[in-house]
Amino acid sequence: MPSARATAPAVASVPEVDDLVAVAAALNAGPGSVVYIDSRDMLRALNAQPWTCPNCGGENDTAFAYCPGCGTRKP
Fold it and tell me: CA-CA distance, 41 to 44, in Å (whole number)?
């Protein structure tokens, strides 16, 4: 008797992205395509510009609104 579990869909590999245009193009890979985007890639896509925390001086290259080091709001 066949298993009741469905087989996993094919996964399209998404390289590190630099902007939302690349993410949009990857998501529109075609009918039936399943695209998984790593959360780190999405953070890079949302904010490709690194910023320096005005409080602790830490370099941040994420889209977080707060510094992951000290919690200060992004300028």
Answer: 5
Tokens of 73: 């709001």
**Overall pTM surpassing 0.85 (yes/no):** no
- Percent residues over pLDDT 70 in the chain: 32
pLDDT given for residue 74 in this prediction = 82
Chain Cα centroid distance, residue 31 = 22
Distance CA 35, CA 30 (A): 10
In order, the DSSP letters of the chain are ---SSPPPPP-B--PPPSSHHHHHHHHTS-TT--B---HHHHHHHH--S-EE-TTT--EE-S--SB-TTT-PBP-
